[in-house]
């Protein structure tokens, strides 16, 4: 569950998020769509504290990450709490961000061992089960450089899942892939959605947004223009900007 309200973010003098609000319930799958530069990735990165915000409130699974008082003073919770709150989320990036010097299995177990202090005997079978789930058990001992882009991204998803997050954030997970490799990644994500994982997916894959997301958020110019059930938004966009964007994309 995520509650984000009135989130503002600047890079230097440029305000790229101008009061973004979004509530995501447990088990919801949200697709965030919109033109390039509209602030989609920045918003996602703010949710998991890869970027700091200048104003607004963010609450993850009922716990505050950052609040803003009546005087407009923005305050994050203490660092230990930031880490604990952010560990409730896993993130998958456009460019996979796997550790190149570690094998596939080592990539999966690294954070559970070092960040969570899970015992190796406990995490290895879990990691192996996750690799089976994403269809890559046979790549257990391979290094990332030997994998295709689609395989790397499925490892990245399994690695995020190894931390047992409540929420998964995906930042354009198929944008760096050749078109023939996007399907395998999208079907892994579709499976997660069917298992009722709470997911926010920043994507240019309109078919995925329409078929898998429960709700679609259209962002433009650093604001949420409309956020509605996927079927409704695609069938009858309310805002002219949404309509113009969809006409270009579909
Ligand atoms: N680290 C940064 N420093 C300065 N400006 C940034 C930084 N990151 C993003 N921006 C700017 O913020 C704006 C929003 O970028 P963002 O990546 O969030 O957009 P987006 O909607 O995800 O775009 P795309 O679909 O192309 O990925 C852009 O103008 C971008 O250039």
Automatic annotation (TrEMBL):
GO CC field: plasma membrane
SUPFAM superfamilies xref list: P-loop containing nucleoside triphosphate hydrolases
Coiled-coil residue spans: none
Chain ranges of the ABC transporter domain: 2-246
GO molecular function, one term: ATP binding
Topology with respect to the bilayer: Peripheral membrane protein
Keywords on record: Amino-acid transport, ATP-binding, Cell membrane, Membrane, Nucleotide-binding, Transport
Pfam families cross-referenced by the UniProt entry: ABC_tran
Compartment(s) where it occurs, according to its Swiss-Prot or TrEMBL record: Cell membrane
PROSITE patterns the record matches: ABC_TRANSPORTER_1 (PS00211), ABC_TRANSPORTER_2 (PS50893)
Family: Belongs to the ABC transporter superfamily.
UniProt-recorded name of the protein: Polar amino acid ABC transporter ATP-binding protein
Organism: Rhodoferax fermentans
């Amino acid at each position: 569950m995520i509650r984000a309200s009135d989130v503002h973010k600047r890079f230097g003098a440029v305000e790229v998020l101008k009061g973004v609000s979004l509530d995501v319930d447990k088990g919801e799958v949200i697709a965030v769509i919109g033109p390039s530069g509209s602030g989609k990735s920045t918003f996602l990165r703010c949710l998991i504290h890869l970027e700091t915000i200048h104003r607004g409130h963010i609450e993850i699974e009922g716990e505050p990450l950052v609040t803003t008082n009546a005087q407009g003073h923005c305050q994050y919770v203490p660092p230990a709490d930031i880490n604990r709150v952010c560990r409730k989320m896993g993130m998958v990036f456009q460019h996979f961000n796997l550790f190149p010097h570690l094998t596939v299995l080592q990539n999966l177990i690294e954070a559970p061992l070092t960040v969570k202090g899970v015992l190796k005997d406990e995490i290895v079978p879990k990691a192996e089960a996750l690799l089976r789930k994403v269809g890559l058990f046979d790549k257990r001992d391979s290094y990332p450089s030997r994998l295709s882009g689609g395989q790397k991204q499925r490892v990245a998803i399994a690695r995020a899942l190894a931390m047992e997050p409540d929420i998964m954030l995906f930042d354009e997970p198929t944008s760096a892939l050749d078109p023939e490799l996007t399907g395998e990644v999208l079907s892994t994500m579709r499976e997660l959605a069917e298992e009722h994982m709470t997911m926010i997916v920043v994507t240019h894959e309109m078919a995925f947004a329409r078929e898998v997301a429960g709700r679609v958020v259209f962002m433009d110019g650093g604001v949420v223009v409309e956020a509605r059930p996927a079927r409704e938004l695609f069938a009858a966009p309310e805002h002219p900007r949404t309509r113009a964007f969809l006409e270009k994309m579909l």
